[in-house]
What does this fold into?
Amino acid sequence: MLVTAAARGLGLAVARALRDSGDRVHVAWRSTESAASMLAAEFPERMHRADLARAEGARDLVSAVLAREGRLDVLVHPVGEFLSASLESTTPDDLERMFLSNVLTSVHAFDAARAALRATRGTGLFFGVAGLDALRGRRDTAGYAAAKSALLVLVRSWALEEARFGVRVNSLSPGLVPHADSDPMTRDPAVIRRIPLGRTGTPEEVARAALFLCSEDARYMTGVDLPVSGGWLA
Ligand SMILES: NC(=O)c1ccc[n+]([C@@H]2O[C@H](COP(=O)([O-])OP(=O)(O)OC[C@H]3O[C@@H](n4cnc5c(N)ncnc54)[C@H](OP(=O)(O)O)[C@@H]3O)[C@@H](O)[C@H]2O)c1
It folds into this structure.
């Protein structure tokens, strides 16, 4: 198994949950240096540094996992930067960064893992954001949501293309899930008041949903986007 963006936040929670359920989990990180020693202790010899904005970065990462395990059955890819800004104040560079980290890294990761996943009839899991299905306009997060919407179309298209090989591809869409490195918006009381279940989620709650989608219990599910949002933007 391979979990990207595992140095912090939701990726770290998913990697720990998969490991705690007995799986051999490889983790990848890019720039959160402070987490490197923690990852090395928790995932000894299964930790990789990779910038997935480049196709070679993704290919080298998957090759390293295959060199050690000989197989890959699960790819979890929570990579994706966030941007809170009106469209008026979003620059072309900002938009490029949103599409690079949310869309292109996913393409590189899936392309690199595709053959290995076919060999195991494995599964891929990507991360959207709550409310994607409704294709709403967004006052403060339009660039980010546009990139996540593009990712959702890719996920559903991969699901269609890969079904005949027995590969499932899904996404999970968190609502507000604060963690040590999350954007201040995840703690904004005005937004939290609009969550039907009345509170933000925890990384562990997201990880449980991820475990389900990657498990045999979800073997008849593909092309699904599962909101984990306490009903927010449902
Ligand atoms: N937390 C929430 O409330 C929330 C809500 C909705 C959706 N989501 C989505 O859920 C996913 C995880 O959320 P999060 O809050 O844990 O994210 P986060 O704290 O913002 O972290 C983003 C992660 O993406 C990695 N990353 C970005 N660009 C990369 C690249 N080019 N190559 C490799 N890694 C790259 C970063 O790695 P390094 O730090 O190592 O550079 C970091 O681990 C994201 O896709 C996010 O959009 C989160």
